[in-house]
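Tokens for chain A. Residues wanted.
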């Protein structure tokens, strides 16, 4: 594996993903998580690092094509929210840009923070509502996901040799 770490501005991150059509890129992003009301004084954040692909048309995924052919799903529809700013990379919604990414078979890693301090996953989950907790403990990897451009911290070229 050959990786090259880059610390980039948000525009450079978009350009990096735009230039990696269908290729694998390691992306690190943060997510602010709303705590249960009893813990509203806490600031919760997840930082995830994953190898993803961008520049893929959802309709061309083999799982999607097979699902349609086997009557397991309907035809691919328009975006349920937002509009494509740069298909199939960037979605714009309410003056916010989102980057469309697709997970790889490589395992992602997540670090959990409470008030800026690293905590165990179980301690983090204890501060959440039952529905938010369930998302973390029982979440199923989606075929694609969207991350706010401003939440992306870094990217790395990812090549397997």
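Reply:
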């Amino acid at each position: 594996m050959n990786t090259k770490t880059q610390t980039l501005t948000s525009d450079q991150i978009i350009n990096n993903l735009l230039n990696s059509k269908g290729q694998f890129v390691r992306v690190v992003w943060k997510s602010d998580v709303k705590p249960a009301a009893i813990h509203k004084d806490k600031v919760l954040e997840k930082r995830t690092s994953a190898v993803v692909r961008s520049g893929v048309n959802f309709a061309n995924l083999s799982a999607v094509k097979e699902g349609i052919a086997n009557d397991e799903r309907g035809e691919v529809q328009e975006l349920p929210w937002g509009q494509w700013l740069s298909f199939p990379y960037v979605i714009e919604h309410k003056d916010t840009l989102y980057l469309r990414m697709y997970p790889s078979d490589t395992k992602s890693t997540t670090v959990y923070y409470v008030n800026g301090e690293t905590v165990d996953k179980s301690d983090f989950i204890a501060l959440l509502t039952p529905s938010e907790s369930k998302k973390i403990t029982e979440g199923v990897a989606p075929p694609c996901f969207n991350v706010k451009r401003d939440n992306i911290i870094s990217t790395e070229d990812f090549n397997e040799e």
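Residues 2-159 form one domain. Residues 1-7 have pLDDT under 50 and may be disordered.
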